[in-house]
Amino acid sequence: MNLEVQIAKIIEANGAALYDTEIVTEFDETIYRVLITKVGGVKLDLCASISHELSPFLDVHPPMNQAYRLEISSPGIERKLVKPVHFQNAVGEKVKFKLCDGNKLKGTLKSADNKSVTVETKAGEETYAYADLNTCKTYFEW
Quick check: 49 and 79 in contact, CB under 8 A? Predict the structure, then answer.
């Protein structure tokens, strides 16, 4: 049984979609963070409902072998792009990339497939393989 697939099913039964999961440590506390998305946005009540359903499931199928706190939230307006599906769903949005060679770039994500992404920058369209990307995220101009 793939834990992420089972988590996604519980989230989908609540009308949302699994964006990603991550394990972080904040203030000496381990957090198992489940990021969800939904057309029209993620409301606090939805996070609470999913938490109430997911918590007993994770009690039986723990995501790690140590104590943790479960957190359900939206990835936010400025969110990390990690998986190809994240990039595909962000086409048309403004993005910031840090490349593996240390260079940085900003632009509009024009396209993404399972191998690479194309970004419209001030210099024109540039295509990068996922292997060339270090950190990537969407950004919002306030």
Answer: no
